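Researcher: Let's run the pair from yesterday's discussion. Sequence first, then tokens, for each.
Model: Starting with the first of the pair.
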Amino acid sequence: MAKSKKNRQKDFQKVKLKVGKKLPKGDNVTNLSFKTRQIKLTQRIKVDDGQKPVTRNKLSLQDLLRQCDHHSSTARVNAVCGLKEMWTTHYNELMVCTNVHGYGVILKKLANMLIDNEAVVRHSVINLFKMMLQKLSANRNDTGCSVLGGNLFTHIHAYMCCAMNHVHEDIKLDALLLFDCLLETFPTLMIQQTGDLLKNLVGLISAPSYLGSKGDSTTQKLSLNPDSKLPAMKFRTRVLLRMKRIFQEALNDNTKQTLESGSADKTFKQGTWSLFSDNPNSKNDTSLTTAQAANKFSLLFFGGSLELDDYITKPSSLKAFLNLSIPVLLQCWKEARASIDEHTSSDNLVSADSLEVMSLVMCVIQHMFVLCLSSQRRNVNSPSEFFPTVDPELLVKNYLTDFEKLFMNKFPYSVQVLPVVGKKRKRSKSNQTVQSDPSQSSLLALNLAVCDIMASFCADRKLKPKIEWMKKVKDYIVNFFRRSPGVEQSKILIRILKNVFSNSHVVAHFVQALKSAMKHYKSLTTKVPQKYLFFKLFSHIGQHWDGWETETQGPQPRCRYEHNADLCNLVKEFYQSLPELLLHVKQLEDNKVWLMEILTLLRHGNGLKIRRLYGDTFHEKLSEILDPQSGIMCTNDEEIQQQMCFLLSFSAPLTRELLVQMLCLIRRPQEKPVLPHRKSWSLVSHSIYNIIQNMKKNLPLSDQVLFNKITPEQRVVLSDYLRFLFSLQIGFIAEELNTICPESKKPSSKVWYSVDYTVQGDQWERHADIANIVAKELSTFYIPADTSHGFDTFSFIGTLEQLWKKMLKSRERIHILSACSLIVFLHQASLAHCVLKPSLEFYTQASVVVASVLSSLFSLDKSSEQSPREEVVWGLKSVVTKCLNNDSPLLNLVLTHLTERSQGSHSAKDWEKKAAQTAYDFLLSDEAIHERVKSKNDGENEMDTS
């Protein structure tokens, strides 16, 4: 307490306060406030243990996946960049099947981020998606392990559908980018496992329409978003473009499978979009995914999409998608047409903005109709029966009337070109290339798609469409051929012509279009792919056209046509061009399929008895076709050679020059002739049989009356055939024979022949087969006698005797091939089924040849002649023994010659005597010959005794 009053007043002085002022704090109050500083660690530095792949910042895959869920967009972008770095640097480790944290975990996390609110995050995710999918697509054959499990594509599919149904338009557009990436890298999966993707694409431009209590959730109407950054038409264009691409990939995959399979039956077993029923018990609604095609993506992505709805890979689903999408597409068409200026002078003018939408709408409907009319095999027991997936009558009933009103009213369409205001037109220089207008290509695609869709209705063979729109389509096609269509445009034109040809009520109205197609086909070269495409078209027409005056063979076509002279001439023109086409295709690489199809068509013409269509042209080109240097036979494919040889049996009579070419094909060069010869199958024998068949078909060899009325020209042809067969027998043509075995100036009356054993390559085995074939055909052929007209039995044996006598008469040397053929001929003539036998004079001369051959085989002097090969020696011994066993007169003559030779007749040398005696003993070593000789000697002894 203060001692004084003054100090006491100072301590307890009253503080005067003003209004609005706060009380000051006391001096003895403790200030409890404090400040801190925060340190944020977004990344953790770890020590690399060398076991797991990490980034440059020592972040593992688990760390990066956790950061993908961070609340900060910057952290999420950095995490995606880290995953990109991880993928590029440690690609091989992430692809190991036994690695738990592989690329499947990365793709699942990226799929979750497709609906991220930040655009920078989504773009980073899509870029990494593209990089990974492209790498996986390039190396899908190296990774076939699925032990890690997980339905990865189901996960990706679910989040992509969520993104496509998102509220924000940017997320929808980014989902379309991922859709494009999957369709580009793994089209097989996308076209097989479409799931809800197609329905979501339709949902992007439409929404269900509810009409009170009578509303139907399947009824669709076009949707309009006023907050959209893109105009409605442009947004629909992007969506329609994706629908077009997925259907286009489906059609391309179907075409690829057809070309690789090579036949219709294989196509329906392997084709992804062939839409046939694998299970015969469920014909109407069967999943069409084959095991091989499904594993392409499911093995790679550890499971695939087996739980997804195989949308439009079922016939019922395809019908449902038609009912869902076509009304929406027609509304898009009407909206695009409504945007056209109402003051235009012509209603068929289309603005550039509307043209793109209209073209895409028509292309989508076009592709769907092509898939609807794809063939489906219903009956496994009868593979030739094919039916469309969606009944054409159903398409006609549901869509023909609407399509006629909407599409054909102002067809064909033209693009509206607006002049540029305020700018001068620049003159195009002569050396500058003029770029094509994109709108023109869209316009062509629009008009062609309209033609294709309307022609698809003609697949209903009961349909009798209106002539008005058929005339419009026909006129447009005729004019389009003047533009020199490309490959894709040619495919559409061919499909249109095939559809109209299948309907007998329509084909007569499109004859002019078919003529234009034929003119365009003949103007193309074989090097351009359009040539083969149009060849397939006319091949189809030629095989199914039944308007011939002659009767057809085989199963009847599905529909009958009235006889149309113009169409008949068109098919004749195509058949007549085949021989020349055959020569041009021969010059191409990888031409086997095309060559086989041409040869099959030529055989088809023969089966229909219409050889007159191409008989003259084929025979005119036959010299070039059979050219031993550059003809069709020079190919290494035996199947083509076989078909070509078979056609010879149907052609006109072969001239001498053509027969000489066949001799060269069969025998030259000696080391490796053009026509191969094998024990299992011999093109040599096949060609000989077909030439003999040609002879019997073109010459009157059926009865004596016709044969005796043979014309001089036919006699020449017959002579040429016999000389050809005789040349095959002796193994050489006349010039070669005179060189090897020259004629002697002073021939003796009874000569002992020297034998030439020069044989190259497989010449011996080839000639043994030839000798058997020719000897059998010539010795067994005969025309029975006609006693009513006084005609005796005719055979070729007499003619062959004269040819052999002429060949042997003036020669002292014979080749082993000729000697072998003579022995084989004698054996065939000695058989019981041979009606006429050779004369005794011919037997006497031929026995000298047989004795000479036997003696030469056992000759002790090897200095003057080449030593025969072992297979030749054994073959000759077998042939001679077989011949002499069945022919006693010939055996007696041969033994007589060998006996005289062994006794020194004809100035024989010592080694020649020993060779003859050895040959004699060789014959007697055979039991059958020994018994025959013994019985003969016993009979002679009995006669002498008596």
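Model: Moving on to the second of the pair.
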Amino acid sequence: MSPFWVLVFVFFNNGYFLDGLSTQNSKRPDVVKIGSIINFDSVIGKVAKVAMEAAIDDVNSDPVVLGGTKLKLTMLDANYSGFLGIIDALQIMETDTVAIIGPQSSVTAHLISHIANKLQVPLLSFSATDPTLSSLQYPFFVRTTQDDWYQMAAIADIVEYYNWREVIAIYTDDDYGRSGISALANQLATKRCRISYKAPMNPQASRSDIMDVMVKVALAESRILIVHTYPTGGIDVVDVAHHLGMMGSGYVWIATNWLSTVLDTDSPLPSGTVENIQGLITLRMYTPDSEMKRNFLSRWKNLTNNLTGNGHFGLNTYGLYAYDTVWILANAVNAFFNHGGNISFSNDSRLSELDGGNLHLDAMSIFDGGQLLLDSILKVKLTGLSGHVSFTSDKSLIRPAYEVINVIGTGIRRIGYWSNYSGLSVVPPEKLYEKPPYRSSSNQQLHSVIWPGQTTETPRGWVFPNNGKQLRIGVPNRVSYREFIAEVPGTDAFTGYCIEVFTAALNLLPYAVPYKLMPFGDRVNNPSCTELVRLITTGVYDAAIGDIAIITNRTRMADFTQPYIKSGLVVVATVRKSNTHAWAFLRPFTWTMWTVTGICLLGVGAVVWILEHRINDQFRGSPRRQILTTLWFSFSTMFYSHRENTVSPLGRMVLIIWLFVVLIIKSNYTASLTSILTVQQLSSPIKGIESLIASNDPIGYQQGSFARNYLSDELGIHESRLVPLNSQEEYAKALEDGPKKGGVAAVVDERAYIELFLSSHCEFSIVGQEFTNNGWGFAFPRDSPLAIDMSTAILKLSETGELQRIHDKWLMRSACSLQGANLEVNRIQLKSFSGLFIICGLACLFAFLVYFALLVCQFTKDYSESSDSSGRSSQSARIRTFLSFVGKSEQALNGITGENESTNSSKKICTAVSSNRSVSFGVGTNK
């Protein structure tokens, strides 16, 4: 080796590190002391112990890693005790230790982190997964494994994927269990799911203690069970559950990664344990396949062959993270020295005051380079057995991911993956990292699962608890409209339309629903259904059925089924019959329509007379004769019986357009008059909700109905105008009395009630349009799975026609029929025909202007020479001459002017101007 490269090697391995333009020097010690606190006999601890020892050997055997410095690892057994873990930590820190790998337990990590903070000794835990350890309270705690926050996010995604809404959490009641379940609750809340029952267990629970807990779980409603315990406790839980018959069809068991750890470490498991865990789903921390990992797996058997205490055991993911943790610390120590770090300790004056005693607390000192070593740890980037290792800004490992595993037979089957990047997928996460993140629900995928009971059908996820408890169902105790709901006197039973729909839907469910109907109301007034729904939220009732309208403020309190009847608000008012009379023929048109039609008749007749009287002898004669002819012609066109012929093209054009207008008017008049004379007409001063709002008359509504709040809050009607009514008799009396006698102008209620009311009260009718659109449904607590199943049953009733049959049975009445009676027909308005009248008027105006232009042209040509020769050129004389010219017929004009050649030439010129007129002014004259 050349002297230059020797110098470079010595330069770096003696603590020199090039960073930008500056270098720092640090003398490396021969040995760096680190400690470890684990439970030697635990499933995780026994694997981690072997893995860390192998990692220490690998680090120390490679002089390049630490430049000749060796790591000295001191391992102490906490023996499942938080107290012993503290003692172990104190013992380790007495020996100038720069870092501690561990502790294994989250509970112990909480305790020791306070000591680490004080002495500035970093803690690197490969197995403490409690999410709260990531808080700012523990700056010297570094997690070198996956956080349970992400594991609970994976479980929440699985719950949402299978459309479950409620789960039961079974967990160890310590920092590890409580924090994990708290994270699960938060993750489920983002999916609109929840934990319906929590079953905590003592960390040292006996079999009888577990039995007591599981009996309560068996009585709960949900069948989605999440088990978050330690490996030994989890095996005991499923054993007790199997004994209680809770591992059969209909149950879903999701275990956190404790089960995959047991399967990886202690396989093959006893046959009894294998039988207990059939169909379970568990998670395993995902570590991508690599050559380094495969080499270590092949080496693992040799590492465990010489162990006599525990015998051979498998390698779990915690072992991989434990191995990588040693390498993380080794790389950080190397960077620490390269940045000029020195291993030195200083005494704390407060600890020095504790000199004496067996604990030797005064021997502990503060690691001066603790902060620098911590920063070096968080900046480490390497590729280990668990994959790429790097830390985020919140001290978490990057790219958290899990395998989703289904236990089948004597082995396991991977059904998919979960990653924080893309959610559930059947593709390994590292392939998805190459694509943009896509977390839509349609993109979530898992392979099929064999569930407990050896079934492939996804369990519904809940049942009615087998504890003898019945659903308390509130029913409004009505005092009117008892066809919908009525309590059978002297019994607890109810009858009516709503009750029969409920029982018919319940019979379609694939399971039995024990329930008890409980009346709600004082039996004097109709109760408020809004208050009934509110009592579901307080736990007084488990559900509510009846004539409960689905409106906005109620949907905020409960979940409703599919509506089983539509029933919006309508207005009902008193109506009177519109009898025919001597002048009934005038009713189809308004007076404006009659007036405009008459004016048009006369106007068209006048225009036709102007266009025809000079060339058509039928429109000439004495003034009296011409007036009568024009009037006769005008009115006779209404019946197409006019005898006068039109000769001029302009007159024919006006007449054709007018006859088309007459055709339309006559057809509508005939149809309207037929309806008036043949169909019974009803009229009411109230035209709908708009006229009610505009008036100051009192308005009736049904006591307990949401109509009161709607009228006052939404429509702004003052409450003083609203009159509560309880029965159909009160409806009828209030409407008959009217506002002047202390009654009401109209009643606003739901259509279902009003249709039943009108079946026996024909003197009233619905006026206007329905102005809300809602329906009736059954109310259940929020996120109740029974609401979904009942909605499906109601849809089946509708599809089979059973819902209509029940409706006809209870609500069809024939005592009174309003068939053939309509509210007063709207009279035909002028605006309906304004377009036709405008067209006709424009046609008349156009014809008149063209005719006038032709007259002026002819007058100018025929009389220009005669006027010049006579010398009469005054304006008034010329106008009198023109009027005389207009009043004379074409024949007379020809007699006066003669048949000279010049006049004929003038006539020919005017004829050419008229654009190919088919009839000239001279037509019809006798020469």
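Researcher: Give me one sentence on the second I can quote.
Model: The chain is about 45% helix and 15% strand.
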